[in-house]
TrEMBL record:
PANTHER family: DUF503 DOMAIN-CONTAINING PROTEIN, HYPOTHETICAL CYTOSOLIC PROTEIN. SUPFAM superfamilies: Hypothetical protein TT1725. The lineage of its organism: Bacteria, Bacillati, Bacillota, Bacilli, Lactobacillales. It comes from Trichococcus palustris. This is Ylxp-like protein. InterPro entries: DUF503, TT1725-like_sf. Pfam families: DUF503 (PF04456).
Amino acid sequence: MLAVELSIRLFDSYSLKDKRSVVKSIIAKMHQRYNISIAEVADQDMLNQAVIGIAIVSSSMVLCQQVLDKVVEEIESNYEVEIFQIKDSL
């Protein structure tokens, strides 16, 4: 099992509505594509930042890390965001 918190900075977010739209899109697509548990866990009222919690369960820690790496890469390449911190939650 791997549990992490991604701290992200959102660009072109001028309202909480803009932020929620981007964060909800990230959460829905990553959950659907990788079957991970994912949710916004902090900084809900901050305009240009979000903290997203991700949990991945597998019998192989290597597989968990590979899935996390793919999720991080996909978020950074498909959205106008910067992941500035990845923190272990356990």
